[in-house]
Amino acid sequence: MTIGDVARAAGVSRSTVSYALSGKRSISDETRQRIQEAITRLGFTPHAGAQALATAQTKVIGLMLRFHDDEFAPAMLQYVLPLSDTAREMGYDVLMVTDADGAEALRRITKSGKVDGLILLDVAHNDPRLEPLRAAGKPGVLVGLPQDTDGLDILDLDFAAAARMLVDHLQGLGHREIILVTPPLEVFKRGISYSWRFRDAAIERARELGLVLHAHYGESRQPAVGETLNAVLDEHTSATAMIVHNDGSVAALPMVLHERGVRVPEDLSVTSLYSQEFGRTFSLPYTAVETSPRELGRLAVRQLVDRIRDGDGPGPHRVRFLPPTLTDRGSTT
């Protein structure tokens, strides 16, 4: 099966089919539709190598992330599937890079011409991958907020607004003493900014409202997760509400509370942050802010592909925060 077969089936020239595949020249919607119908009918798959030669593109997106011992792996995986699904829908494959030395790995795959652009997850405040990303001249999108945002497309949840939303929700119900379980200490040390963006905003909002808020580092692996939750609950017996910003901890919390005989919300109101999919996976019944990994993944791929195809056409680089939304599941009163 060749491009000539597609051209004959669509009633156009070989060059028109080539333009439709490469996007080098504009063609009418009617012609593009005839070509796509011919491709579908014939089961034609463009040769990746030929496309790369013709367009100077590989049709591959690099996805850079790491799975750390101090993070809850299922939470990170929530981003990977929508990223890969959206890339495939837009005609791109994904090369997932998990090297410990992310900066060197980025240099390697960009110098070798393996990818047309990159998406970075697990972004740190002073992320060592940013300098080689800028030097590579390849478009990149970050899911996560670094200190230096110059010349970068950045997407993330507005964690500060999410913290204020949850504190306000509990204060509105009359709670005056709240426990906050944060990500593990190691996440803060690695400079992952969502950790302190949420914690600091929650502490500040509680102070503004005259509330008592006890912030404690959570854990990501058992048995430390359960031991830490029990210790925090033992320490603050007068607290009437809990905010859990820790995926490993919130997944374990229903069992911990059941074993302690604590009823939600009668004895303790509980709120958290997680996606609907994460909540279904772990049967979590808590009122929570939606973390939107699916939307963030899709937006990241679309923004990157726009940059790959049209350079500065999508407009200035910018930081975009998704506004938080709260789903009330009846775990607060």
TrEMBL record:
One of its GO terms (molecular function) is DNA binding. SUPFAM superfamilies: lambda repressor-like DNA-binding domains, Periplasmic binding protein-like I. Residues 1-55 form the HTH lacI-type domain. InterPro entries: Cro/C1-type_HTH (IPR001387), HTH_LacI (IPR000843), LacI/GalR-like_sensor (IPR046335), Lambda_DNA-bd_dom_sf (IPR010982), Peripla_BP_I (IPR028082). CDD domains: HTH_LacI (cd01392), PBP1_LacI_sugar_binding-like (cd06267). The keyword Transcription applies. Gene3D superfamilies: 3.40.50.2300, lambda repressor-like DNA-binding domains (1.10.260.40). Residues 1-31 form the HTH cro/C1-type domain. It holds the Pfam family Peripla_BP_3. Residues 309-333 are annotated as: Disordered. Keywords: DNA-binding, Transcription, Transcription regulation. This is LacI family DNA-binding transcriptional regulator. It comes from Streptomyces litchfieldiae.
